């Protein structure tokens, strides 16, 4: 068995009241998957001490 650092993709969990509302617990070691579609609005909410370092659109 080997041990080492591992990174994972965090998949947001849907609210039990409205599946369109999703949230994920922040972990600085994870990447969060954000699935979107043309014509849909996506809002990301960050704490006051957080900042977006790099934002890119992937087609």
Write the SSE topology.
Blueprint: E1 9-10, E2 13-14, E3 22-23, E4 31-32
Parallel strand pairs: 1-4
Antiparallel strand pairs: 2-3
Organism: Klebsiella pneumoniae
Protein name: VirB9
Number of helices: 0
Total E-strand runs = 4
Q: How do the strands line up in the largest sheet? A: 1-4
- Please give the alpha-carbon distance between the first and last residues: 39 Å
Question: Which structural traits does this protein have?
Answer:
59 residues; mainly beta; two-stranded parallel sheet; two-stranded antiparallel ribbon; 4 strands; VirB9
Could you characterize what this model shows?
The chain has strands at 9-10, 13-14, 22-23, 31-32. With 59 residues, it is an all-beta fold. It has one domain. It has a two-stranded parallel sheet. Strands 2-3 form a two-stranded antiparallel ribbon. Strand 2 (13-14) and strand 3 form a beta hairpin. The model has no long low-confidence stretch (mean pLDDT 77). It comes from Klebsiella pneumoniae. This is VirB9.
How would you sum up this structure in a few lines?
The protein has 59 residues and is mainly β. The chain is built from no helices and 4 strands.
């Amino acid at each position: 068995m080997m041990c080492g650092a591992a990174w994972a993709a965090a998949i947001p969990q849907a609210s039990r009241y409205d599946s369109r509302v999703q949230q994920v617990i922040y972990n600085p070691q994870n990447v969060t998957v954000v699935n979107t579609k043309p014509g849909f609005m996506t809002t990301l909410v960050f704490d006051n001490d957080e900042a977006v370092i790099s934002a890119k659109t992937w087609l």
